[in-house]
Amino acid sequence: MQNKPQKKIPQRRCVGCSTTKSKQELIRVVRDPDGNVSIDFKGKKSGRGAYICPSVDCFKKALKSKRLDNNLNVTIPEEIIEELTSAIKRGE
After folding, report:
1. Is 49 within 8 Å of 29 (Cβ atoms)?
2. What DSSP element (H or E) covers 71?
3. C-alpha 74: how far from chain center
4. pTM of the model
5. Is residue 30 within 8 Å of 15, Cβ to Cβ?
6. What is the DSSP letter of 24?
7. How confident is the model at residue 20 (pLDDT cuts 50, 70, 90)?
8. pLDDT at 29 over 90
9. Each residue's pLDDT tens digit, 39-65
10. 11-13 and 48-52 beta bridge pairing
11. Cβ proximity of 31 and 37 under 8 Å
């Protein structure tokens, strides 16, 4: 009897701390084809994505070094920064 192969868990790198974690542990920020930036909690939106740990320190590091902006090739709007900060503090 053969065992089923285990399903591969997708890994992504955090833009703040450069730690590789499973996709489910990270928050995805996405730039859609029209250039709009939004938070993608389900990981299903189309567009260019960047991943960040749900940690305030990690998020601050990504903002300070402009890694989030550089990964998405766009300046992150202030309302998205506020939404991400509150989502991280709530523990989403």
Report:
1. yes
2. helix 67-72
3. 15
4. 0.84
5. no
6. G
7. very high
8. yes
9. 998 888 999 999 999 988 898 899 899
10. unpaired
11. yes
